[in-house]
Amino acid sequence: MGRTLAQWLSHMDDLHSQVIHMGLERVSRVRESMGLVPDVPVITVTGTNGKGSTCAFMAACLRAQGYRVGVYSSPHLVAFNERVQLGEGLAVDDATLCEALEVVESARGDLTLTPFEFATLAACQVFRQARLDAWILEVGMGGRLDAVNVFDADCAIVTSIDLDHEAWLGDTREAIGFEKAGIFRAGKPALCADPLPPGSIRRSARQTGAHLLQMGEDFFVESGADYWTLRHGHKTWTGLPLPAMKGAFQLQNAAAALVALFCLEGRLPVSRHALDQGIANARLPGRFQKIADHPEVVLDVAHNPHAAASLAANLACDACQGITLAVFGMLSDKDMKGVVERLDARVDLWCLAPVQDRRGASLEALQTVTKGVRGKVLAFHSPVEAYEGARHMARPEDRIVVLGSFVTVGAVMAHVDAMSR
Description:
By secondary structure, the chain is α/β, with parallel strands linked by helices. It has helices at 5-15, 25-34, 51-64, 94-108, 115-130, 166-169, 173-180, 199-208, 250-263, 272-281, 305-317, 336-343, 363-369, 383-393, 406-420, and strands at 42-46, 69-72, 84-86, 90-91, 134-138, 155-158, 189-192, 211-214, 219-223, 227-232, 235-241, 289-292, 296-300, 324-328, 349-352, 376-379, 399-403.
């Protein structure tokens, strides 16, 4: 009898001495041993924030047209299977995933892989077996040296560029832009949805020979109260439905998704009706996701200052009558202070919660970064305890926001789901 998924995940964690080991040599050799070469269009998406939303928009449009699409993303919220989606956005089942992991294990020989590298190859093995029409691959970190980059992108997207993962990607937008532009390929479209990109994006596209399409130069968004407009080249699409996902920045993500599909229309034609359906219906858990009213409960995986600023803007635009309570836990290698600073003006009560992860920030670290905030600060032992504490304190007119990491949001999401059964 083979390993269970839980046993595979434990094996993957133990296999390599480092959780993160940037580079493509090992994963490239295993991919070659597997003979894993996509025979359908591949769209690769990177960026500091907005990757998941952009993938969701593209997948929803393609599915509305009737295509079979695979989406690989990370990290997950509740179950590892969420990272590999097939068909109508359904997470792959344990048995299928375990079979793919076995294929990777057999192909790697004596080579060690990080958990992300192992998972990336397994996901693409699932996609190959499923005989899909398109693969959508979300980069885990950076781009140039990320495991996803062993697959050539037929269309590459950079959603946004800001400071995150500085220890691996560099501490300037120029350096980070260079890493993200590493997914560009010669002669292929390369989109950048960041309205103020660093010069490294253009330089990388020129050096690679990619066909760069830049928001504000090659495609343009005009927003309205009920609809929006996208201009690209000599074409204009008017009356596009507003995304269900909240935030003005979602129009940037939606625009990048649509332009990418336009670039691939020779291989993946999509009707205007399917585009409208996809934009209107695309959803992504944990992105300003409202799960309850009275008090309102919002889940948001904002885990860097750029994302926290967007969350603060959403909170300002969608104000509640009462106070805002934040259930807050982060990973220690993130800019915790920067996140707190972006949200300080919008949070009245901080419920601190250390997360159960090897990179999780301790309660003491969370207390340090919230020292001096304008709101009150309370300490709890876990995200679930902090959430229940916030619910106990909140009045019907108040709002609870769960934020800081996928681990924090995932723990509360699983708890809420279990309580509703």
